[in-house]
Amino acid sequence: MRQIPKHSFFCNWLRLAAFCMFILSLQGCAFLRSFQEKPSRLPGLPDREIARNDFSVAAGNDVIGRLALISLEKGDTLPDIARHFSLGINAISDANPGVDIWVPEAGQHIVLPLSFILPDAPRRGIVINLATMRLFRYKVDARSPMVSTYPVGIGAEDRPTPTGQTRVVRKTTRPTWHVPASIAERHRKQGDILPAQIPPGPENPLGEYALYLGKTGYLIHGTNKPASIGLQATNGCMRLYPENIEKLYRDTPVNTPVLIVNQPYLIGQRDGVLYMEAHRPLEGLGSSELERIYAKLRNLEKKSPRKLDWNKIKAVQAEARGIPVPILKMGQGSEIETEKPIVVEHPDTLYGKPETPELKLNAWYVLAGDLRDEIDARRMAAIINHQGPQIPARVLSRDNGFRVIAGPFRNISEAREAAKRLKIDLDIDGILIEPVDKG
Amino acid sequence: MKKTLLLISMMLVLPVTLIGCATTSELEKVQAEQKLIDAKAEQALRDAQAAKAEADAAKLKADDATARAEKAEQAALERERAADEKAKRADATFKKSMKK
Lengths: 439, 100
Hints:
heterodimer, A: Alpha-Beta Plaits, 25 strands, globular, disordered N terminus, B: rod-shaped
């Protein structure tokens, strides 16, 4: 009789323990799941983030990334949007023809061309396509081949970046810029005497990092003029956004091979669909490259059971929007399904957007423009703001027009220096404005 | 015989006189009708001329409006072109300023 209660107590205890374990295990699963599940987003809502630099390259695929759309807000400029999404000014303006670069309309939707066809070149080291003004850094991850891509600024029309194979021969942080004779001469003609060398700092056009190439005198470097990325503005070097060169510098050991190509027309496949991407060709190369790409397309057409839509191909080539466009479904299957662009949420702050300090009564200013049209005034202020190093500028509205004021400057010499830069770089005759409060 | 002749003459004169009267009234009636028609025609002509004048005026107005619209369109295009030119000049200056 006494055994029964003991057994019953033990059994009850065991049951209670098992029940508690069961409850805990359920809690544990729920707890874990809350970590594993990605935050679900309501359909139709914009995404916060989109891949812009680092992509894995699936076997047999030549196209990376996705197109995106963003709604502009008041005060946005295309160079600011471009920098935030790691695009060059060329890419964003070509993808959005007719959109004012400096004074776009708020609420306007613009395309972020964050989809790229990889250049027709071996996938190793660094490959730079001059026509698309984009650099590709190939790496092999533990699982799959990876590519990091960044927009670049390249050599001006009169100082083009040479194509061909080379390598990184040395690299340095905080480089000193030894002013080339041709640049010193150009500045001298404008009344600007440059020193023989410029030390690291905001005035140094090489920025904070430099990779020296085997082709003597040519570098991949940062910049103190971020708005020049996507322009033909260098002496033959390739410049990157400061945040991009920092990453490339860390990822690139000495002796990394560098191949510079010039491919305005690109074709490539992704998931059985053939894409074409066309850019405006740089001087003197368009027709031969077009012939090359047409020959390649004719070969692919022969191997495909379908016919190419040559009118579409010509339209893609003529529009030259720098966006991969599907042109042929390879193999058997239904019609081409066009991938829809991702709608991206406008960030609270755009990375690298120039900031204009508050007005101060005891500061110096430079009157840069007295204009009737607000758009002209806002454009002028935006261009001044995007100089490198930045010259802060704002628009002040009046009864009968708009004034563009550069500043504030701490003293007369800073204001004079800014006025000098406005004259040399932008041909603006600025007028110095004394402080209101001289105390 | 004289009586007979007079009777016959009278018998002839009376119808002729009667016919003559009838012809005169007819003529007056026709003339009155003609006057009415002429007045109508005059009215119609005046109306037509007025309508034509109105149409001409409307056409002139329309032509004027078209010319003004074309001028306004031209001016808008001109302004747009000037704005584009300004934007292009600003871009070119900016690009130049981005060189080292």
